[in-house]
Structure formats: C-alpha cells, structure tokens
Amino acid sequence: MNYKIDNLQYCKWNREVFKINREANLDAVHVTVVYHEDYDEFLKRIEEWKKHFDENSDLIFHGKDYKDIEKAKKENKTSIFFGFQNCSPIEDNINLVEKVHEQGCRFMQLTYNNQSLLATGCYEKNDSGVTNFGKEVIKEMNRVGIVVDMSHSAEKSTFDAIEISEKPIAITHANPSFWYDAKRNKSKELLKALSESGGMLGLSLYPHHLLDNSNCSLENFCEMTAKVAEIMGVENIGIGSDLCLNQPDSVVEWMRNGTWTKTKNFGEGTKKNSGFPKQPEWFEDARGFYNLENGLKKTGFSENEVNGILGNNWFNFYKEINK
Amino acid sequence: MNYKIDNLQYCKWNREVFKINREANLDAVHVTVVYHEDYDEFLKRIEEWKKHFDENSDLIFHGKDYKDIEKAKKENKTSIFFGFQNCSPIEDNINLVEKVHEQGCRFMQLTYNNQSLLATGCYEKNDSGVTNFGKEVIKEMNRVGIVVDMSHSAEKSTFDAIEISEKPIAITHANPSFWYDAKRNKSKELLKALSESGGMLGLSLYPHHLLDNSNCSLENFCEMTAKVAEIMGVENIGIGSDLCLNQPDSVVEWMRNGTWTKTKNFGEGTKKNSGFPKQPEWFEDARGFYNLENGLKKTGFSENEVNGILGNNWFNFYKEINK
Questions:
Q1: I need a surface site. Which of A56, A225, B9, B173 has the fewest CB within 10 A?
Q2: What is the ipTM of this complex?
Q3: Which residues of B touch A36 (CB under 8 A)?
Q4: Domain architecture of chain A: domains with CATH
C-alpha cells in the first residue's frame, strides 16, 4: 500500500482546500493549528477544527495515529493531524503537554524562530541549546506521544533535541543549507545526525527555503532531494510543503511578530517583499505532488523510493513512534 | 536626610511583618509580588496587596517613585514598591510591560534561575544572553520605568542587559562569588561592569548566598561588604535582604519548581535540607539593619557610607531612574 502525506500545511482552511488535498490524493496532512496562541486560544482553534470536521466529513477527519492514515486511504478521505509551530500552548506548565495531546496535538516545535522556554530559535544570535524546562518537556512529549519538531530551531538546540529525545524527532519543513543558505535550512551534519537517530526531514516548498525562491525549478528541487538522500538515506525524507494557501499577508506578519515586538520584523522576507511569497508554478498547491512524482522519477529515483518520499516514509515514521 | 531601604523582601505578609519593618525604620521595601504567575494571576496578587494597604494604612502604602520614600519618612510609614522575580506576568506580550507598570511594577527580573523568553537564568548549563524579545522588552521597560533586575540571571545575560539597557540596572539581591561561590552570586568583573554603568547591588542576607550559610558572622559579612565597596564604589551598594519571613517550605518548593518539572528540583538547597534556611542570628528580620549599622561602622565605614549602604544609595538610584 502506498500513502501520500504532506507533513506540514498552514492554509486558510475551507472546503476548497480540503478538496484540493483530496485531488492530490493526500491520505494525511499535518496541519499547523497554532503559532503563538496560549492554551485557551489553542482550545478555540480546536473548536474551529471541530466545525471543519463536521462540515466536511466527506473529505476529512481528525487523525490520531497511523491507523487513521490507513482508514483515510480506505475511505478516500484525508486524515488531519494537529501540530504546533511554537510551544506557546503549554505556556510554562509541563502538565499542559498531556492536555494538548488529549486534544490531538501530535507534533510540537520547541521554538519558532525566537528563543522559547524550551530551546533556541534559528533567528537568535546565540543558541544555548535545550533548556532545563525543555529537557523535562521532551521527556513528557516522549511519554504522551508528541513528536519533537525542530523546523524553526537553531542548530545546537536541534542537536540537543536529537540526543535528549528517546524517540526519533522530525524537522517537518525545511531544506538543506548546502543547497540554499537560508536561516531556516539545515546543515549536512545536522541532517546526518537526524537520520542516524531515525528522524525525518520534510522537504519544504515554501519559496523562502528554495534556491531561486519562487522561480526554483522542479529539476533543481529534485536534484537537491537526491543529494539529501545521499546524506540521510532516502527513507528519512518526506514532504512538508509549508503551503499557506489563501492566507492574507496579515497572517505572515503575525507569524513573524506575534506580540514580541513593537517594531516590524520581516523574518525571511524584506520590507519590500514582506507578504507571502508566490509558490513555484509546479507546486501552487498540493496537486503539485504529481509534478514531484514525475520530477523525482526523472532524477533517477525508483518508484519505490518516490513512493517513500511522497508519503510512505512519513507513514512508517508515524507507525514507529506509535509503537 | 537618611533613608533606610530593604530592596528585596518576599515575606508572608501580615501586620506583624509590617510592624517589624517599621521597627527597623524602613522607609521603603521592594517586595516580590510574583514569581511564576501569569498576567491574570498577577492581578490577583495586586488585589491582595490592595487589601494589605487598606488594612494597614497606618504602617504602609503603595510606593510609585522616590517621592513616596520621602513621604514615607515624613509619615513614619513604609512605602511598598512592587517587583517580579520572573517575567511571567508579561507572558509573550510586549504590550503587557506598560500594563504591569500601570499596576505598580517597578522592578522585573528578566529570568528566575531557568531560561525565560528574555534571557538565561543562572541554573541553566548554557547562557545565550538577552534574546530578541528580551531586547525589545528592555527598551520598553526603560521607556515606561521598570528597573531591569538580574539577580537570578546568568553572567552573559547580565552583561548583555547592562549594555542594552539605557538606564542603570540592578541586582537587587545577591553577593559576590569571590566571597561565596554560589550559582546566584556574582563575579568581580560583573560587579565592576554593573557599578560602572550606574547600577546597584543589593547585598543578600539569604543564608544560601552567605559564607557559612546560617552561621555566617556579622563581621565576615561586613568585611565582604568592604571588599565589594573596593570593587564597585560604596555608593553602588545597598541591601536586598531576600527575607522570606513566615513562608512555609511549600513556597520555596514552588519558587524552585513552578510548573516546569514533574520531578523535584532543590535549587540552592539539597534533598536533606530542602526548606527555607534559618536566618543568621544577627539578621532574623529587618531589625537586623541595626546590627548591620554597627557592624559596618566597626569595619571602618564612615557614618555617611553606612547610611548610603543602608538606604541612601537605593534612594539615589530610585531618584536617578525617575529623571
């Protein structure tokens, strides 16, 4: 059985997006439910998702573990897995880790760009690694079953998380820095350590993580994938598209600035180019998975390897962490 | 005019304690109103203080700036200044800095032992310094008039805070590490940088910061004070006793553990000696200021210098930061 999984999307959700994901044949999508929301605000997002599930029960349902991906495949639906891009919902309280898991959280980034209470983000000048509280939280995430996601974290913090976590961790959406040296992209050494620990990298289709940005070619992206496979092994690679369909630019502004500054931080953008960037033509939405399939095959990947990258590897990871 | 100021107490407040502080002739006390409380919990603490002010208006009132210290002296009362030992009440929101100032906050520690969103605490393994959010918050604290307090912070973070803050900062309660090498005590280099920037050190009477702990002698404490005066200049030294009168041991447990761990952290204590330590005989409560007065004189300080250490230096600092 082959599964198709996009392990990171943060769209402005509506029936149209869920339909597109079905057209792309996605059996599972890991969706970002919060960035900087605290616990109470997170509960409100969950209410919104309950409404989505009610209103679109022919297309989507709430996924809790890998069996729901199997069920989705059987029912021609997309299972939706909840994740956080920052650890804000657990506030400063270790007991909230179990609570957010009960509400469906399955992935949590320890940081989003800036320093958090758990670890350092990739936009800080110095990286002190996983903190005292962070160590306790990783232990608790391991216990309840939330994957440590270090996509927006700084390097030492990520090495620390790989070492501290007793379960494999994930970088759900990023690319290698040898290909394109963005702050958010990851070093060879880190990717190697990630794969050696059984961790996964979700390759990102977000233009700020791509060589030539919105003009990145499919061929170039697939060649990069082949190089990453040499470093990590092909079975540790998946897709985490980072698609932000329909989101207004006010959302990317909020993602970057939250409530931490009175000035304006442009993050990966610039003052002139501050909004969401234009997707590459061959990946305007999840239907780009078909282009990826062709592109990866042309690059020399076997059918089996392509199926791994487009979903089976993530499926195996979900299965492994549920053991 | 001479003022007596204790620039850090965290007692279990009641009329008895306010009376003792009057017997000690304290014109001002900087009190810790919160450790790990969030904004809403902080507002509850404020309500409790309003009750204290109502019920003990013959002994205390809420101090907002140095003029209230002058007023307290005139009326034979103690002015109470609010401070935080952690930055929890501002959560992740820069706009709350102004809000907590409106409620009376005049001192805020950027960290309490562990990493915070603003800086690194002295119990972390690595210190990455003041964070992106921390820089913004210091700017805002400078603007509204809250003193940056680095008593529980790690060294690089404290150097950073001294450099970043446009107003002098304070270490309201700590001692030098050359005298007693506790994690909470500070290096010569740091104390020198603090005084060169116009900052203040409040010497602590908390046994875990004292040579020989509860058995520390008055003479030894005063000799240490003389050595600190050589490094910092006598005018940058005051008292921040860190008195925790009447607090049950459950409180020190909470101070150390907050909600960040499911295990038990003993902080400056040990498993066998986990509660609040016994105060030295010569400083069981604020009336120990009289013993300090005698001890400092015996050590060779002039009357003027002693008056500076026991309150005038803090008074001048309050005046300076209100300019």
A1: A56
A2: 0.92
A3: 92
A4: 5-321 (3.20.20.140)
